[in-house]
Design a protein that fits this description.
This protein has 20 helices and ten strands. It is of the alpha/beta class.
């Protein structure tokens, strides 16, 4: 009010100052919490910087918040405290939990409708978008870093062990791991990150056997776990046997053990295709990847893999201006050339059909076939109820329970059947508890 009564010259000076200051004041910050490390963190930072440089109204601020579970838990806690980020990266198995958090999220399809940004759900790869959409095909979150599980191979180690071909089946992996151990890889013939993703979730989908009823939860909350069948028991029994002399060696519940591959300790290692950036930057040996192994005595195996990685969830309670900026950023990420660049830099899948086709047309996979491996896995056969994906509530906690039981078995404290039976029983109890909070 004081400016209204100021002298004309002073008013003009103030007005000029305000005009000069207005661009800085007009910038709307968009907080983006993520879980990317190493080379993938570099990709995130570059995307934010490129978007910020492309316009002057919005500034995306990426912040690393720890592992996937840590990031999701931090975001949920922040929402309850009233200071959630505008964008939160959540790994794929957190989908059911986020879907049930009514009011905590802003569905992407609604965001794009309300802001008028160009958005065509059919432009994205269906194997990816189906995971993050309602039964009506409405996209709830934005696919960002989609991956699948692949088998990373130290080619120099195979040569040292006189192994001529990359293994295709689980029996071949077991035999080759013994040869590698004899060739000097004494502490680890092979291993996996994400123990339940590798040895329960992907194993089941790849062999077209159920992890749970109701299409692994995609067809309804009232699902029951079913991964204590003959295939899963046989597989865990073999891991228990091989753990005894470290032909197989356990590498943890998440991806913290991935460095055992890049260091050269574990010459065969199953983990995300999104590990590419770290392998490229850190491995000092010749390497490649290959599809996950399968049991040849299982009819029609392999089937198709399911996606991993994460999507971007837009959080609720933000201003219209923030939502405009978020929508523009998602449209920015969808650009074909940008998707190709992200794919090449990170190893994560191109999320649009156009980006995949462009990468193929450029002959990109002829020189780097390992970047097409997860796409071939995902599209190996048309998905079934057992291989479309999974959507189970409290999945972070479920995985911990399943891993706890697997750890008991690997330590010789339980048989494979006892461990998986217990994991199913305990998990079903947790699912029933989740339903009470999620279904109104």
């Amino acid at each position: 009010m004081m400016f209204r009564f100021s002298l004309t010259a002073l008013a003009a000076s103030v007005a000029t100052t305000l005009v000069l200051a207005s661009p800085a004041q007009a910038v709307t910050e968009i907080q983006w919490w993520h879980a990317m490390t190493g080379g993938n963190n570099d990709v995130v930072v570059k995307l934010a910087n490129d978007f910020n440089a492309s316009q002057s109204d919005y500034k995306v601020v990426p912040t690393y918040k720890g592992s996937y579970p840590d990031t999701m838990n931090a975001g949920i806690a922040a929402f309850r405290a009233g200071n959630a980020p505008a964008i939160m990266q959540v790994f794929e198995v957190g989908t059911a939990t986020m879907m049930a958090a009514t009011g905590a999220v802003k569905p992407v399809y609604k965001l794009m409708q309300e802001t008028g940004e160009k958005f065509d759900p059919n432009a994205y790869l269906p194997a990816i978008t189906g995971y993050y959409s309602t039964s009506k095909g409405e996209m709830l979150s934005f696919p960002f870093n989609s991956s699948s599980m692949v088998m990373w191979i130290n080619l120099d180690a195979l040569k040292k062990a006189d192994i001529a071909e990359i293994p295709k089946t689980w029996p071949e992996v077991f035999d080759d791991a013994r040869k590698l151990k004899a060739a000097g890889y004494a502490t680890c013939g092979f291993s996996t990150a994400w123990v339940t993703w590798a040895n329960l979730e992907q194993l089941s989908a790849w062999h077209n056997v159920p992890l749970a009823s109701k299409a692994n939860g995609l067809d309804g909350f009232d699902t029951k776990l079913e991964f204590n069948g003959p295939l899963q028991i046989k597989h865990l029994e073999k891991l228990i046997e091989l753990q005894k002399d470290k032909t197989y060696d356990y590498s943890g519940r998440t991806n913290t053990g991935e460095g055992r591959f890049t260091s050269g300790e574990c010459p065969i290692f199953l983990t995300s295709s999104g590990f590419f950036g770290n392998v490229k930057n850190q491995a000092k040996f010749n390497w490649t990847n290959a599809p996950m192994p399968y049991y040849p005595d299982v009819k029609d195996a392999p089937q198709n893999s399911i996606i991993g990685g994460a999507s971007l969830w837009v959080m609720g309670g933000k201003t219209p201006e923030e939502y405009k900026g978020v929508a523009k950023f998602l449209a920015f990420l969808s650009d074909t050339d940008r998707q190709v660049a992200i794919h090449k830099a990170s190893g994560y899948l191109p999320i649009t059909k156009a980006a995949y086709e462009k990468a193929k047309a450029e002959g990109f996979y002829k020189d780097q076939p390992y970047l097409e491996t997860p796409i071939k896995e995902l599209t190996n056969k048309p998905p079934t109820e057992n291989s479309r994906g999974l959507r189970l509530g409290n999945m972070v906690q479920l995985r911990d329970v399943w891993a706890e039981e697997i750890e008991q078995a690997l330590a010789g404290k339980k048989t494979a059947k006892e461990a998986l039976d217990a994991a199913v029983t305990r998990g079903n109890t947790m699912l029933r508890q989740f339903e009470k909070t999620a279904v109104r």
